[in-house]
User: What shape does this take?
Amino acid sequence: MSTYVIILKEKKPAKELLLKLREAQTPILNCDLVEPLDNKSEHENSDLDISAEVFANQSDFNSIKLLNPNLARKNRQKTLATWLIPFGFIAGLSFSQMTDLKTFADLGFPNQLEKLLGGLVGMISGALGSFFSAGGISQESFDDLRAIRKKSEEGFWLLILELPIEIEPPWAILKETDNLEIISIGKE
Assistant: This one.
């Protein structure tokens, strides 16, 4: 998918843009409206009903996985752990079975638990592997996120559009909107 962050001064142009995109039948996978971190602007209570119909998600900056690397890292850790912990248990169990080492028996554990303890050590290795391998983001995305966060702290609204990778965004409609900047974030 292709992700675009459109930086806007107010909430109203975001609603208008999304309505135009829907009229043009642009396939949108996901759409998030992110309120500014430093929200000095007045809340638009009169448009509350329209906003609920137009936007699927309106949230704050730190609850969006795309904008918060910590949320993305935790999600990757969970995904990796679901595979690495059971794989580590099976690998540790198999290694103990194949080598017939007496590592734990030499430490005073019963000989019958040798293979099971090898599997537990493999599980722990899988958990540690999922923790350490899930961290980090590329420098390019870090720079993009820093620029986006700065705009949000300055009081700008962020409209995050996720489109299918094979679909080119309707640039004519996007240019008609009163936006400050459009940032394209990595394609998956």
